[in-house]
Amino acid sequence: MPLFNVYPLYDVTPVSGKGIYVYDEKGNEYLDLYGGHAVISIGHAHPKYVAAISNQVAALGFYSNAVQNPLQVTLAERLETLSGCEGYELFLCNSGAEANENALKLASFKTNKKRVVAFSNGFHGRTSAAVAVTDNKNIIAPINSQQAVTILPLNDIEGVKRELEKGDVCAVIVEFIQGVGGLDQGTAEFFEQVDLLCKANNTFFIADEVQSGYGRSGKFFAFQHYNVTPDVISIAKGMGNGFPIGGILIHPSIEAKFGMLGTTFGGNHLACAAGLSVLSVIEGEKLMDNVNEMSCYFVKLAKTIPQIKAIKGKGLMIGLEFDFEVGDLRKELIYKHHIFTGGAMNKNLLRILPPLTIRKEHINMFFEALVEVLSEVEELEVEN
């Protein structure tokens, strides 16, 4: 049976990983500056992570949410402490899309409204409501387009005010650093005004931290760079370092009800063990400090390269924008220099999402390769 052909694939087959490197079936080493869409937060095969999963699966890998699971309670307590989101409650699921789906569902339940405001170039997942609030018509099927959604430009505070005052908006959902869209950000004034407007209009303010959370921005959550208090915070990717896990943090003012949300696999024993090990490493190895130090170093080197027209993002969620499409550049980096990088909806943007354990020597390797590739591109342009 063939695989359903929906992914354009690089001709690379990773079979193992260690730290910031992955290795293919021929033993070639690749520097991983993409982390599988920002999923690898503490590095490939971190020994604490491997031990936690191994020990847990040997004891009990799964049972349903019909029984007590103390690992969920411990994970919630550790997440509250490290994130600083005091009083929030945790609902666990399996992915970022499912996290956003539940966030939107909760907002609709609690406000008894159904329209959502989202923003241009935003990406929130591929499930029903999550994809409907994603600004990409190519992945929205007719069944998804039944959702009541209004897409506004980032920083259009007057547009947000106008829509919320109509009285039918259950939620505003936003990435504080856009991922797939291209690392664009709203202003502090915009985010803070949106927060106030939501509170004044019985509208949930949902912070999509699926990609930007877990220390990647230099703070535990990207929204913490601003003076805002989200009603719901969605999390996934870096949460499990590769093990499927997601969740939403729910403001204490929102009351739970039996049956309101549910999941079969969400919050299973193995997922919680993975999640706890990630938090332990982030804290024990002071990875958020490393994010800020390595980000400053990365940006310093990026500013020395004239072909880079803009540096976007925060922390280790960085976009390098050129005045040409970067598809061929990425191919040169992966095939010739064995470096994984990412793209975005902005075809001129190179996306950098390395494990939070990255060091200066890895950054040096990247920029040496980048300079070489850019020089080759310029030589070809001169010859032509």
UniProtKB/TrEMBL annotation:
It comes from the Bacteria. Belongs to the class-III pyridoxal-phosphate-dependent aminotransferase family. It holds the Pfam family Aminotran_3. This is Acetylornithine aminotransferase. It comes from Algibacter lectus. CDD domains: OAT_like. The keyword Transferase applies. SUPFAM superfamilies: PLP-dependent transferases (SSF53383). Its cofactor is pyridoxal 5'-phosphate. It is an enzyme of class 2 (transferase). GO terms for molecular function: identical protein binding; N2-acetyl-L-ornithine:2-oxoglutarate 5-aminotransferase activity; pyridoxal phosphate binding. PANTHER family: ACETYLORNITHINE AMINOTRANSFERASE, MITOCHONDRIAL, AMINOTRANSFERASE CLASS III. Keywords: Aminotransferase, Pyridoxal phosphate, Transferase. Its EC number is 2.6.1.11. InterPro entries: Aminotrans_3 (IPR005814), Aminotrans_3_PPA_site (IPR049704), Class-III_PLP-dep_AT (IPR050103), PyrdxlP-dep_Trfase (IPR015424), PyrdxlP-dep_Trfase_major (IPR015421), PyrdxlP-dep_Trfase_small (IPR015422).
